[in-house]
Amino acid sequence: MKKLLLSLAIAASLFGADKLLSQKQTIEILKTTPIYSQIQPLLKKGKIKAKATEKEDFYIIELQAPRGNINIFVTKDKKYTILGRVIDNKTKKLIQPDFPKNAEVIKKGVMFTFGKGNKDLYLVTDPECPFCRMMEKQKSNFLEKNYKVHVILMPLPFHKNAKAMSYYILAGKTDAERAKRMREVLRGSNEWKKYNPTPKEKAEFEKELQNAQKAANELQARGTPSVYDENFKPIEWPTLGVKK
């Protein structure tokens, strides 16, 4: 298995563009894997969706579930399934499928926009995430001046206060007010603790959060913060504003 992983990682740097496979082809590949029997009922009910791309020596299948996406790798001879990460040794980056993005789904998940720049940036963030707070501290002024930042809130289930914080942010009536509330929360304000949404408000916020989760899935966000350019290509957020 170690030899297989090594050969895949080395070969990855030589591959060209991914070839998008049909749904029928995707299912046929999944049927050869040991996990198919477990996920087949969920696929049939539409609770999990699958997309696949073809590379030179293996397939990448992305499984989309309500709580996030995962990638599995299947060798071309269909003898091996790899559950985990494959890294390109040359670029040091994860090998991931480059599926066309549904702009309508992504834009529907945007909850508010801030910034004075001319370029678009999409930000998937969790108000309780320590790395999101680090990004706020280091990059907020740069983002405000150089981009129109379209915010997609994704409160992670293991952050117990993230949902309540998100409700407080979404209670803002305008983009400017929502942006202000998010900035305050990321900087440590506890004002969110004083806010108790009504059942009607909570229901409305949950609809927004569901759309946001769909947008995050479409962007293939693996965590927070995740940043994407106007073409929905991922950007390593620490590099923003760093001169090359």
Written description of the protein model:
The protein is an alpha+beta fold. Helices cover 38% and strands 20% of the residues. A five-stranded antiparallel β-sheet has the order 1-2-3-4-5. Strands 6-8-7-9-10 form a five-stranded mixed β-sheet. Strand 7 (119-125), helix 5 and strand 8 form a beta-alpha-beta unit. The two termini are 38 Å apart. 30% of the residues are buried.
Give the class from helix and strand content and strand pairing: alpha+beta
Question: How far is it from the N-terminal to the C-terminal residue, by CA?
Answer: 38 Å
According to CATH, the fold-level topology of the largest domain is: Glutaredoxin
Count of all domains: 2
Largest sheet: 5 strands, antiparallel
Strand tally is 10
- Strand order in the sheet with the most strands: 1-2-3-4-5
**CATH superfamily (homologous) name of the largest domain:** Glutaredoxin
Characteristic key phrases:
single chain; 244 residues; alpha+beta; Glutaredoxin; five-stranded antiparallel beta sheet; five-stranded mixed beta sheet; 8 helices; globular
Short description:
The protein has 244 residues and is of the alpha+beta class. 38% of the residues lie in helices and 20% in strands.
